[in-house]
Amino acid sequence: MAKLYFRYGAMNSGKSTALLQAAYNYEERGQKVLLAKPLIDTKGEQLIVSRLGVTRAVDFTVGANDDVYAVFQREREAVIRADGADVACLLVDEAQFFSPQQIDDLLRIAIREGIPVLAYGIRTDFQTAAFPGSRRLLEIAHSLEELKTICRCGRKAVFNARTIDGKFVFDGDQVAIDGVDVTYEALCGLCYLDESGDSLASGWKAPVALGIEPMGPDADFA
Ligand SMILES: [Zn+2]
After folding, report:
1. If we measure between CA atoms, which residue out of 207, 214, 199 comes closest to residue 169?
2. Closest by Cα among 59, 52, 91 to 77
3. pLDDT higher than threshold 50 for residue 87
4. What HAMAP family does the entry give (predicted)?
5. Is 25 annotated as a binding residue?
């Protein structure tokens, strides 16, 4: 049975590069792939833009209310007519911007059509809350894989802090496109809490002091 894969990571973890590499791997074996992305991402319009400088046009974009299953089948039919071969894989960039219903369609495509779906996206927004599409992917994807990137301090980055004019901001709309309205910096948990003043998606809370000398984080996890 084909699977739905969610490959997630913080900003700048190389998701688009990994997607384009996966597409290349299929095509190197003579197989057909379809590339899709949501319309909401205005960064590259119809392009998947990798930070390494590789760009590639998507085969179709998906509007907020589009029936992804129907659009995919239409595009798949065009491939079969043109090439006489079926689609081997559907690759989705910026999958966090798909609606939960559209993510459900990706699962249907994998299971009912037997075509693997590789969805790449960001797990959480700048306030550390899941994007609706990412939450649904975390719920139903057969396979979860984290693409890693490094915080400014050297730890693994897990959150996406938003900056405007070089200053961190922790209030605002969930969606603001990187490089257009704002910029983002991938941070580890400690750097995020330091910058947000101990705020997370549920609000603010001060660190709770321990009544005795702490043993340090290495004591339990060495
Ligand atoms: Zn850090």
Report:
1. 199
2. 59
3. yes
4. Thymidine_kinase
5. no
Helix then strand count (H, E) for the chain reads: 6, 13
Q: Is residue 95 part of an annotated ligand binding site?
A: yes
**CATH code matching the domain that covers 4-148, chosen among 1.10.510.10, 3.30.559.30, 3.40.50.300, 3.30.1330.60:** 3.40.50.300
Which comes out higher in pLDDT, residue 150 or 52?
150
Q: How far is the CA of 106 from the centre of ligand 1 (A)?
A: 34
96 annotated to bind ligand:
yes
Spatial CB neighbours of 30, under 8 Å, sequence gap ≥ 6? none
Provide the percentage of residues in the chain whose pLDDT is more than 90: 82
Task: Give the pLDDT confidence of 157-170 residue by residue, as tens digits.
Answer: 999 999 999 999 99
Q: Is 89 annotated as a binding residue?
A: no
Ligand 1 centre to CA of 129 (Å) is 19
Catalytic residues: 94
Residues 51-64, mean pLDDT to the nearest whole number: 91
12: left (phi over 0), alpha (psi -120 to 50) or beta: left
∠ CA 49-143-57, nearest 5°, is 20
Please calculate the CA angle 173-175-180 and round it to the nearest 5 degrees.
105
- Which residues are close to ligand 1, an ion, with C-beta < 5 A? 151, 153, 155, 188, 191
Quote the pLDDT of residue 12: 87
Q: What is the pLDDT of residues 98-115, one digit of tens each?
A: 999 999 999 999 999 999
